[in-house]
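Running this now, will post back.
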Amino acid sequence: NELKSKEYSDSELVSFAMKLVSVNEGGIDNEYALELLKEMRNEIYPLASKKVYRSGRDAFDDGDYAEAAEKLEATVALAPERDTAMYYLGKSYQALKEYEKAIYYYKLMLEVCPNSTLKDYIPQRLRECGYTE
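Update: finished.
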C-alpha cells in the first residue's frame, strides 16, 4: 500500500484527510472509484483525527480557542462520533463567546454519544451559554 510505504508529516496527513472530507461522492458514478475513496477514508481518517484532535486539545489547553475550534472542527469532520472532540469544540466556542455554535456542539454530542461520560457536564455548559429548554 502506497500510503503505508511513505511517512507523512502530521500536517500532510491532516491536509490529505480534509481533502477527502470535501470530496462529493454524488459526482462519482464509478464503483471502483467510490470503493477506493471509501478505503482511503477508512485508512486515513482515524490516523488524521487522532493527530488533529491532539493539536486541537493542545491549543485549547494553551488558551488559543480559535485555533482549538478550527482543529476540533476538523476532528469532528473526520471522526463524527468522537465525544471529546465535540465537547472541547463546544468549550472552545463558549470561550470565544460564540454561544450558538457552542450549544450546537454540546447538543450534538448528547445526540451522537448519549452514553458519553461527559454527558453530565452538558446541562451546566448549556446554562452557561444562556440556553434554556
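Residues 7 and 13 are 9 Å apart (CA to CA). More later if anyone needs it.
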